[in-house]
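Schema walkthrough. Field components (list of strings):
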Amino acid sequence: ASTLCVRLSAPPRQLSLRTVNSSRSAFASFLFAPLFFQLYEAGGASPDRELFRCKVHMKSFLGVFRSLPSLEKTVWKCLILLKARASRLVVQLHCKYGVTKTHNLAFHECERLQAVFDTRRCASTLCAPARVLAEAVIHFPPTLAEVTLGAGPGGKISLRNYVEDETEPSKTMVTELWLAEDEFQTVAVAPGSHITFCLKEFRGLLTFAEASNLPVTIHYDVPGRPVVFTLDDAVLEVHLVLATLSDLESGSQPPPANGVSHLPVPSDDFADDLESYMIAMETSAYEEGSGVPPSPTFPLRTPRPAESDPEEEEEEEGAVPGTPPHKKFRSLFFGSVLMPGGPGPAPTQEVLAEDSDGEY
Amino acid sequence: MPLSTQPPGSGEPFLLAASLDNARHLSSLLRAVHFQDHATCFATANGLRVTVEDAKCIQANAFIQAEIFQEFSVQEESVTFRINLSVLLDCLTIFGTSSLPGASTALRMCYRGYGYPLTLFLEEGGVVTVCKINTQEPDELLDFDFCSTNVVNKIILQSEGLREAFAELDMTSEVLQITMSPDKPYFRLSTFGNAGSAHLDYPRDSDLMEAFHCNRTQTNRYKISLLKPSTKALALSCKVSIRTDAQGFLSLQYMIRNEDGQICFVEYYCCPDEDITEAEL
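Field assembly_structure (string):
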């Protein structure tokens, strides 16, 4: 992610660091209670207001904490000050030998950044020590993009690398491992359920969880709905919300001759988004030969300005954040906007994903 | 190793002849000043000085005194020539750069005089390589005229405390600002990059501070791209002395201990940056 959103709020009195990636398929938030710090002074103002919110460039912020091993050896105190009037977030490292490193980072205004999710609505929950999960993912190649977590027979939990359907079976390596139920602190999963998500972000969280010795709780529901990873501690709450791959009923099947598979009724949740997508479809190149508008992963997002996140506010609970850049994800909504009799994508357009909402 | 002082078939001794059991004693120091292709070599009975300059703003000198060499003879008062430093370093490290204990390259250096190449004989494990590097007219060198009477502020720091700081300097900043003062912040290195400003403060009573003689508050800015190469010298050194004069010229002197425990010096001189804009604090 390129920016970090820093927010001081009260109540509850807390500091939050949040970020979302550019395709809006991964959201992370770290909430720090005042007790996490040696000193927490959040200035005056009325008690029921958000005190402060800003965003800084992730690279700039990370630059302060370059070289973690040497930081651990030389820094004994880190002071973070918000100088609102000067528009500076000050991070001051007090190092050994009396040396002080002060970084004055420029910050900018930022919109509220909050992914809407409700872990209570997730059908399945797992909780395991970070070490167990870290030791499991180590078996997958570092370049692996997606991994599938599944609930198997006998209460076992499987982890398997995700392989695209188009890949030739003889040319792929499948790695699968099974974890026994007793390796987990909690197993409350829907039988036969599975979920596929991006491994890279998950690894990042595991590194932190292992270092802080915190158990990881995984909440997931049906494929296509986000998976939520949580770390909980008395003074720290971490959430990582990742988009997941939705189920593909059939592989890549050519649609029927009329070019339209069927028109499902879009659910209310996506009504607004659908409208903007249709506008995008109409205004974009519908010339001969062009089939699909050049959409990013999640076409509904394109018309919106990059910095605002109204989709976050508008979404109902459990709504899917944008999905990772992947051709299967992109086609999620093509089927739902094909109007009978109207202009449509070229007949050879494959419907790679049936509507995922009609079923639920 | 039969590397004779006399050139074959000639009665004249070389203008400059030197022998070194371990060529690394020379090559590591030359690397610390290698930020340009060309260097000027200046040899006297006291030893060898290699100078590199850039942009008429920065000068680095590597001093290898005569005592470091097993043999060092100069037939005239001084011998000067310009040489391609990149090529010289490639030749000195022709047997590789790894520093295995026991395995070292022996060096013999000979220079006949104006117009002649610098001849190097390098030997390791019985294998001998002969290199002849062309020499050129020496350049006119800058004279920073930095003598102790001009010095306004001076500190001596243990290099350990500065190494990481220099290696991590925000290179998106055009300048490195150095503040030296009898009052707080005493010694401060500042950069003004894309992320914002960063300040590194060393208090006068820090354990790293070996000497602190600051008489007047001075803040000077130097082009960071010119000073960045000094990081190599800093990495090799155990101590560094930082001095500024009334005009804001900077002198950095690095004390380097080689593998045999002998002391050598590398120094950097830098002009202050003329485009002064208001410092962001």
